[in-house]
């Protein structure tokens, strides 16, 4: 029986409510395999008599399957998500609920192009401890804990300072570059020699802080999740399906007692090979796109 048997094209394009483009459709779902199918397929293919795993609980397979999806989300799957907000006067952005790490932070210009914002490592938002006139720490009279302010002086000065970036626009013209020697002056730091602004992340409070020149700008945050936050995210692309099976098998065999070492090492090599293949497949390299990019070879490439 085909995988699409029982599902009409009308149902696919109109969704459960039968209304076109009502945001309940699940477009492109055929490229993914659900977590439940991953668990079922693994038990069918790898568990049983005369197979590499003779017996295992379904809950154990589900645990290792979730761990495999989580690990693959960081460097194999296309798990990058995005959010867009307008920077408020507080110059803060709250990290998304399923945030793990950022991919890119940028602001959007009038043409809809994303201008990369670079992180700064020269400031932070430390815990501001309150002191009296003698510079002694102040404590809460009830529980004896140290009293702290709402905002640190470091953050106050950073958000109230004006930008000192010197390069207003990126310029790729060879003659202008040769004449002005841009990018060749000693003493400049590239992350500061631009006008897109800066940001830094406070991991304890879960907030992104922006420089003062970004107030009112539209900000886009591209970030990585672990694909376990929501049920609809817990899926595996078919290009990486075999790699997930090998990852589950290796995780199970490597944590069991009395498993021959040669079997563990063989499964480890298979896991590495299938993971590499998954990365190549999901990189989505197209020959015609590479050819078009190589037509740009006559332009100067700066390192």
Would you write up a description of this structure?
- This protein is of the alpha+beta class.
- It has two domains: 113 residues, no CATH class; 142 residues, no CATH class.
- It is 31% helix and 15% strand.
- The chain contains eight helices and ten strands.
- A four-stranded antiparallel β-sheet has the order 2-9-4-5, with no helix packed on it.
- A hairpin with a 4-residue loop joins strand 7 and strand 8.
- Helix 2 crosses helix 3 and helix 6 runs antiparallel to helix 7.
- The protein is extended.
- About 3% of the residues have low confidence.
Write a brief structural summary.
This protein has 303 residues and is of the alpha+beta class.
Sketch the topology as an H/E string, one letter per element.
HEHHEEEEEHHEEEEHHH
Whole-angstrom Rg: 26 Å
Alpha plus pi helix count: 8
Note poorly predicted spans: 163-170
Biggest sheet: strand arrangement: 2-9-4-5
Helix content: 25-40%
Largest sheet: 4 strands, antiparallel
Number of strands: 10
Lay out the secondary structure.
Blueprint: H1 9-14, E1 32-34, H2 35-46, H3 58-75, E2 80-86, E3 92-94, E4 101-108, E5 114-116, E6 118-119, H4 153-160, H5 174-180, E7 198-202, E8 207-210, E9 218-224, E10 235-237, H6 241-254, H7 261-282, H8 287-294
Parallel strand pairs: 6-7
Antiparallel strand pairs: 1-10, 2-9, 3-8, 4-5, 4-9, 7-8
Helix pairs in contact: 2-3, 3-6, 6-7
